[in-house]
TrEMBL record:
This is Probable transaldolase. Belongs to the transaldolase family. Type 3B subfamily. GO terms for molecular function: aldehyde-lyase activity; transaldolase activity. GO terms for cellular component: cytoplasm. Transmembrane segments: none annotated. It is an enzyme of class 2 (transferase). Transaldolase is important for the balance of metabolites in the pentose-phosphate pathway.
Amino acid sequence: MKFFVDTADTAEIKELAATGLLDGVTTNPSLVAKSGRQFKEVIAEICSITDGDVSAEVAATDYDTMIKEARELVKIANNVVIKLPLTLDGLKACKTLTGDGHKTNVTLCFSANQALLAAKAGATYISPFIGRLDDIHLDGLELIREIRVIYDNYDFDTQILAASIRTANHVRDCAIIGADVATVPPATLKGLVKHPLTDKGLEAFLADWAKTGQSIL
Ligand code: E4P
Protein backbone atom coordinates (compact mmCIF):
# COMPACT_ATOMS: atom_id res chain seq x y z
CA MET A 1 0.00 0.00 0.00
CA LYS A 2 1.26 3.46 -0.91
CA PHE A 3 1.32 6.25 1.68
CA PHE A 4 0.28 9.75 0.72
CA VAL A 5 0.25 12.58 3.26
CA ASP A 6 -2.90 14.69 3.42
CA THR A 7 -1.65 18.23 3.99
CA ALA A 8 -0.46 21.45 2.33
CA ASP A 9 2.10 22.05 5.10
CA THR A 10 5.43 21.88 3.26
CA ALA A 11 7.51 21.54 6.44
CA GLU A 12 5.59 18.37 7.34
CA ILE A 13 5.91 17.07 3.77
CA LYS A 14 9.69 17.65 3.77
CA GLU A 15 10.07 15.81 7.07
CA LEU A 16 8.08 12.81 5.84
CA ALA A 17 9.70 12.77 2.38
CA ALA A 18 13.11 12.55 4.08
CA THR A 19 12.11 9.20 5.63
CA GLY A 20 11.79 7.65 2.16
CA LEU A 21 8.37 6.30 3.14
CA LEU A 22 6.24 8.89 1.36
CA ASP A 23 4.70 8.09 -2.02
CA GLY A 24 2.72 11.27 -2.67
CA VAL A 25 0.61 14.11 -1.32
CA THR A 26 -3.06 15.06 -1.38
CA THR A 27 -4.39 18.56 -0.81
CA ASN A 28 -7.87 20.04 -0.83
CA PRO A 29 -9.19 23.63 -0.68
CA SER A 30 -9.56 23.46 3.12
CA LEU A 31 -5.93 22.36 3.56
CA VAL A 32 -4.74 25.11 1.20
CA ALA A 33 -6.77 27.68 3.16
CA LYS A 34 -5.22 26.37 6.39
CA SER A 35 -1.71 26.83 4.92
CA GLY A 36 -2.50 30.52 4.30
CA ARG A 37 -0.52 30.35 1.04
CA GLN A 38 -1.17 30.94 -2.65
CA PHE A 39 -2.56 27.72 -4.17
CA LYS A 40 -0.34 27.42 -7.25
CA GLU A 41 2.76 28.44 -5.33
CA VAL A 42 2.23 25.84 -2.60
CA ILE A 43 1.49 23.08 -5.15
CA ALA A 44 4.70 23.98 -7.03
CA GLU A 45 6.71 23.74 -3.80
CA ILE A 46 5.13 20.39 -2.87
CA CYS A 47 5.92 19.04 -6.35
CA SER A 48 9.54 20.07 -5.89
CA ILE A 49 9.75 18.15 -2.59
CA THR A 50 8.34 14.86 -3.88
CA ASP A 51 8.40 13.01 -7.21
CA GLY A 52 5.20 11.23 -6.16
CA ASP A 53 1.72 12.18 -7.27
CA VAL A 54 0.43 15.49 -5.84
CA SER A 55 -3.32 16.07 -5.95
CA ALA A 56 -4.47 19.63 -6.63
CA GLU A 57 -8.21 20.24 -6.60
CA VAL A 58 -10.19 22.36 -9.06
CA ALA A 59 -12.37 25.08 -7.53
CA ALA A 60 -14.98 25.25 -10.30
CA THR A 61 -18.11 23.13 -10.40
CA ASP A 62 -18.97 23.39 -14.11
CA TYR A 63 -17.24 21.26 -16.74
CA ASP A 64 -15.82 24.06 -18.91
CA THR A 65 -14.20 25.93 -16.03
CA MET A 66 -12.93 22.71 -14.43
CA ILE A 67 -11.13 21.87 -17.66
CA LYS A 68 -9.64 25.39 -17.90
CA GLU A 69 -8.46 25.20 -14.28
CA ALA A 70 -7.06 21.70 -14.78
CA ARG A 71 -5.09 22.80 -17.85
CA GLU A 72 -3.59 25.60 -15.73
CA LEU A 73 -2.75 23.27 -12.83
CA VAL A 74 -1.03 20.61 -14.96
CA LYS A 75 1.42 23.29 -16.15
CA ILE A 76 2.82 23.51 -12.59
CA ALA A 77 4.67 20.17 -12.66
CA ASN A 78 4.59 16.70 -14.22
CA ASN A 79 3.44 15.07 -10.97
CA VAL A 80 0.27 17.16 -10.55
CA VAL A 81 -2.87 15.00 -10.35
CA ILE A 82 -6.14 16.83 -10.99
CA LYS A 83 -8.62 16.36 -8.18
CA LEU A 84 -12.25 16.59 -9.25
CA PRO A 85 -15.48 16.43 -7.25
CA LEU A 86 -17.79 13.44 -7.66
CA THR A 87 -20.47 15.19 -9.70
CA LEU A 88 -21.61 14.62 -13.28
CA ASP A 89 -19.51 17.59 -14.43
CA GLY A 90 -16.55 16.26 -12.41
CA LEU A 91 -16.87 12.82 -14.03
CA LYS A 92 -17.17 14.35 -17.49
CA ALA A 93 -14.02 16.39 -16.81
CA CYS A 94 -12.33 13.22 -15.52
CA LYS A 95 -13.10 11.44 -18.81
CA THR A 96 -11.71 14.35 -20.86
CA LEU A 97 -8.56 14.80 -18.78
CA THR A 98 -7.88 11.03 -18.71
CA GLY A 99 -8.26 11.01 -22.50
CA ASP A 100 -5.69 13.81 -22.68
CA GLY A 101 -3.23 11.69 -20.68
CA HIS A 102 -3.53 13.45 -17.33
CA LYS A 103 -3.85 11.75 -13.94
CA THR A 104 -7.07 12.36 -12.02
CA ASN A 105 -8.32 11.88 -8.46
CA VAL A 106 -12.10 11.84 -8.05
CA THR A 107 -12.84 13.06 -4.56
CA LEU A 108 -15.72 13.21 -2.07
CA CYS A 109 -16.77 9.60 -2.72
CA PHE A 110 -19.30 8.27 -0.22
CA SER A 111 -20.86 5.31 -2.06
CA ALA A 112 -19.81 2.27 -4.06
CA ASN A 113 -21.92 3.40 -7.01
CA GLN A 114 -20.07 6.72 -7.09
CA ALA A 115 -16.80 4.77 -7.14
CA LEU A 116 -18.10 2.62 -10.00
CA LEU A 117 -18.88 5.75 -12.02
CA ALA A 118 -15.43 7.22 -11.33
CA ALA A 119 -13.76 4.03 -12.57
CA LYS A 120 -15.90 4.11 -15.72
CA ALA A 121 -14.80 7.73 -16.22
CA GLY A 122 -11.19 6.49 -16.17
CA ALA A 123 -10.11 8.04 -12.86
CA THR A 124 -6.54 7.27 -11.80
CA TYR A 125 -7.65 7.44 -8.15
CA ILE A 126 -10.96 7.31 -6.33
CA SER A 127 -11.01 8.95 -2.88
CA PRO A 128 -13.62 7.37 -0.55
CA PHE A 129 -13.83 9.36 2.72
CA ILE A 130 -13.77 6.96 5.65
CA GLY A 131 -13.79 9.35 8.62
CA ARG A 132 -16.64 11.51 7.38
CA LEU A 133 -18.84 8.39 7.00
CA ASP A 134 -17.88 7.22 10.50
CA ASP A 135 -18.74 10.73 11.77
CA ILE A 136 -22.37 10.18 10.76
CA HIS A 137 -22.41 6.62 12.19
CA LEU A 138 -21.99 4.85 8.85
CA ASP A 139 -19.16 2.41 8.14
CA GLY A 140 -16.32 4.00 6.17
CA LEU A 141 -14.30 0.81 6.00
CA GLU A 142 -17.27 -1.11 4.62
CA LEU A 143 -17.23 1.32 1.69
CA ILE A 144 -13.56 0.51 1.02
CA ARG A 145 -14.45 -3.22 1.09
CA GLU A 146 -17.30 -2.75 -1.39
CA ILE A 147 -15.19 -0.74 -3.82
CA ARG A 148 -12.36 -3.33 -3.65
CA VAL A 149 -14.80 -6.08 -4.64
CA ILE A 150 -16.34 -4.06 -7.48
CA TYR A 151 -13.00 -2.94 -8.92
CA ASP A 152 -11.65 -6.50 -8.75
CA ASN A 153 -14.83 -7.90 -10.37
CA TYR A 154 -14.21 -5.79 -13.46
CA ASP A 155 -10.42 -5.37 -13.37
CA PHE A 156 -10.70 -1.60 -13.18
CA ASP A 157 -7.30 0.13 -13.08
CA THR A 158 -8.58 2.94 -10.84
CA GLN A 159 -6.69 2.92 -7.55
CA ILE A 160 -8.52 3.12 -4.24
CA LEU A 161 -7.08 6.09 -2.36
CA ALA A 162 -8.55 5.75 1.14
CA ALA A 163 -9.11 9.29 2.46
CA SER A 164 -10.43 11.07 5.53
CA ILE A 165 -8.36 8.71 7.64
CA ARG A 166 -8.46 9.55 11.31
CA THR A 167 -6.74 6.70 13.15
CA ALA A 168 -3.90 4.19 12.91
CA ASN A 169 -6.56 1.44 12.91
CA HIS A 170 -8.06 2.96 9.76
CA VAL A 171 -4.65 2.59 8.08
CA ARG A 172 -4.26 -1.03 9.22
CA ASP A 173 -7.79 -1.96 8.13
CA CYS A 174 -7.32 -0.30 4.71
CA ALA A 175 -4.16 -2.35 4.22
CA ILE A 176 -5.99 -5.56 5.21
CA ILE A 177 -8.86 -4.79 2.82
CA GLY A 178 -6.43 -3.97 0.01
CA ALA A 179 -6.76 -0.23 -0.59
CA ASP A 180 -4.04 0.82 -3.03
CA VAL A 181 -3.19 4.05 -1.22
CA ALA A 182 -3.96 5.64 2.14
CA THR A 183 -3.76 9.42 2.44
CA VAL A 184 -3.06 10.18 6.05
CA PRO A 185 -2.70 13.37 8.12
CA PRO A 186 0.96 13.96 9.13
CA ALA A 187 0.49 13.28 12.86
CA THR A 188 -1.36 9.99 12.21
CA LEU A 189 1.25 8.93 9.65
CA LYS A 190 4.12 9.59 12.06
CA GLY A 191 2.15 7.89 14.85
CA LEU A 192 2.11 4.56 12.95
CA VAL A 193 5.64 3.82 14.14
CA LYS A 194 4.75 4.10 17.81
CA HIS A 195 4.24 1.16 20.16
CA PRO A 196 4.76 1.30 23.94
CA LEU A 197 6.46 -2.11 23.93
CA THR A 198 8.95 -0.88 21.30
CA ASP A 199 9.82 2.09 23.54
CA LYS A 200 10.04 -0.11 26.64
CA GLY A 201 12.10 -2.78 24.87
CA LEU A 202 14.53 -0.23 23.43
CA GLU A 203 14.97 1.38 26.83
CA ALA A 204 15.88 -2.02 28.36
CA PHE A 205 18.27 -2.90 25.50
CA LEU A 206 20.04 0.44 25.84
CA ALA A 207 20.37 0.04 29.61
CA ASP A 208 21.84 -3.49 29.21
CA TRP A 209 24.16 -2.33 26.43
CA ALA A 210 25.49 0.45 28.66
CA LYS A 211 26.30 -2.20 31.31
CA THR A 212 28.61 -4.01 28.82
CA GLY A 213 30.79 -0.89 28.59
CA GLN A 214 31.26 -1.62 24.87
CA SER A 215 31.04 0.61 21.81
CA ILE A 216 30.38 -0.46 18.22
CA LEU A 217 32.34 2.43 16.67
C1 E4P B 1 -8.68 13.59 0.77
O1 E4P B 1 -8.18 13.77 -0.29
C2 E4P B 1 -9.12 14.67 1.65
O2 E4P B 1 -8.21 15.75 1.48
C3 E4P B 1 -9.10 14.34 3.11
O3 E4P B 1 -8.65 13.04 3.34
C4 E4P B 1 -10.31 14.74 3.86
O4 E4P B 1 -10.13 14.41 5.21
P1 E4P B 1 -11.07 15.01 6.36
O5 E4P B 1 -12.40 14.36 6.30
O6 E4P B 1 -10.34 14.67 7.63
O7 E4P B 1 -11.15 16.50 6.13
